[in-house]
Amino acid sequence: MSTKCERLAGLPRTGPGLGRAWRAVLALVVAVSLGTHGTTATAAPRAVVDGHAVRVEVLTRALSYPWALTFLPDGAALITERDGRLRLWADGRLDPRPIDGVPAVWASGQGGLLDVLVHPDVDRTGWIYLSLSHPDGGGRAHTRVVRAVFDRAGHTLRDVEVIVDALPTGRGGRHFGARLAFGGDGMLYITTGERGDGDRAQDPMDLAGKLLRLHPDGAIPDDNPFVGRAGVRPEIYALGTRNGQGMDVHPDTGAVWFHEHGPRGGDEVNLARAGVNYGWPVVTHGRAYSGLPIGEGREKPGMTPPVWTWVPSIAPSGLAIYDGDLFPNWRGDLFVGALKARLIARLEMDGDRVVTEERFLEGDLGRLRALEVGPDGALYLLTDESEGMLARLVPEAPGLK
Hints:
The protein is mainly beta. It has a domain at 100-313: TolB, C-terminal domain (Neuraminidase, 6 Propeller). The protein has helices at residues 4-8, 18-33, 122-125; strands at residues 42-49, 52-63, 66-71, 77-81, 85-90, 93-94, 113-118, 127-137, 140-151, 156-171, 177-182, 188-192, 210-214, 236-239, 244-249, 256-260, 267-271, 308-310, 316-321, 334-338, 344-350, 353-360, 368-373, 379-383, 388-395. The chain is globular. Residues 63-392 form the Glucose/Sorbosone dehydrogenase domain.
């Protein structure tokens, strides 16, 4: 099993030698760091998922509306809290001190400090990435992505620089998107919400309601689909999205997958494709909250249909494509957390097609905000609550009832 950092930095993933040794060492580090045998972990619900008996191990309930987590090479985890705090989980405990140097955020509605991601070669660069809602004054804000060096010894961020601003700004606290992922091509992918104004998703000169693709330093790749085309922002990789809050890269293909909230029904899972239009709000499987239809139907020539939809909505947030060793049957499956439905959905894949959906732990854990495969192969999760939970799915002990 490998971390995303290891995978994207080009370290061996399978076979003898360095890759296997690295995985073994890192799994041991994480087991100690995240308190496998510590008093922090407590028993929680159990389930059988695609032949694997699992239990939920609660690590802490001391987070305030956590939004995302990412793992550092030593097995520690960085966790964002929506009100603007960045936290460190290491050595089996949540550091009580928020990390210093985090930029100001507009913590209103769905806004705040959102995703966190480490650079694929973070040991060399020191970079981590944050997405947030940046305050513009007068009740207005926009999605911003920054990178910074995490100074572990000083417990602070330094050398903070803006990677992209999803402008123009917008009023209100809805639909920031803001999920981050490094694709198999080494590029940084960013979802941006349309800020509650569907027409912005179809505006080619507006970065809201889009999937963006950038070099890790924020430069625009020469092979982005709209580079050199008049009237289209070159940062755009695809358009016509509503509010993407889950994204991950497939461990075998390097392809980027993301999901987005629909309105009343019509949540979608999409495969990132260059230059396509996913259709919002012209086409959708959902309806307005009033019950009235939206747009022109479910399909239209020139607009890319979703790979999977949920009607009624589950309110997806967080997406992890399993690449660990603890649960071999899950390899390449998509795991989606749900805020409204309060469950985890496993989507079994056959290439670019969903074969089946399996739902589990429904109602057992609360509102699921984020999922992440840990270096130890466990599936980690965060719950969207004032006493937010960090937990992980681990194999059920043989014979344990």
